[in-house]
Each structure stands twice: as C-alpha cells, then as structure tokens.
Specification:
- By secondary structure, the chain is mainly α.
- It has a domain of 75 residues.
- Helices cover 87% and strands 0% of the residues.
- It contains four helices and no strands.
C-alpha cells in the first residue's frame, strides 16, 4: 500500500511537469490564453497601455491559478479512485475484483473518450 501511494505521487508529479510545459487541449499555452483575454479586454474596455500591462499580469496569474487548481482536482480524483480500488481489492475475492476492475477500466475509457470530443 505504501509503495502504491509513492508510485501514485511520482506519477502525479510527472504529470504536473508535463502539463505545465505542453500546450493545453485548446492548443494555447498559458501565456497565449492570458494574451487572448487581454486583447479582448483591451478592445472592449479601451484600455490604456499602462492598464493593458497590469491587466495582462492579472490575467496571467488568473490562468495559472485556474490551471493549477484543475491539476490538483485531477490528481485528487485519481488518488481517490486508486484508494477505492485498493480498498475493494482487500475486500473482494480475486474473481470479484477482476470483474470490478474491468468495469472500472471500461468506465475510465468511456470518460476519456468523452473528454476528447
């Protein structure tokens, strides 16, 4: 159990590093998202250059915090699923656990497929 938790933590950290360096689902980096938000605000609010710089920094901080929060939620959810699976494994017979694991995997694949769409 202890090894499993360490493994989960390592996988989570690796995922965080990759997620922060790669482009996101919509193809935009964190900075590009902030720039896009700032450009819209500049146009609609008629910002001065000084305001634009401050708004850009605020937008960048907001996007970073939102992305970090999303990563934390994903990691917490994954930890909960792994913990639940470990608990079930200690309770169920090997045959029962195999059935449950297969159903969990199907559900996970279905969830990932929906997220891609």
């Amino acid at each position: 159990m202890k090894k499993l938790m360490i493994l989960i933590a390592l996988v989570g950290l690796t995922g965080m590093v990759n997620a922060q360096t790669e482009k996101k689902k919509d193809g935009l980096t964190t900075e590009q998202k902030a720039d896009k938000m700032t450009a819209k605000m500049k146009k609609s609010l008629n910002l001065t250059n000084e305001q634009e710089l401050k708004v850009k920094e605020a937008n960048l901080n907001f996007v970073r915090e939102r992305e970090n929060m999303q990563l934390e939620v994903q990691q917490k959810s994954k930890q909960m699923r792994e913990s639940h699976k470990a608990n079930l494994q200690s309770i169920l017979t090997p045959e029962q656990f195999k059935k449950v694991s297969e159903k969990m995997e199907k559900r996970e694949k279905k969830r990932k497929h929906k997220m891609k769409e």
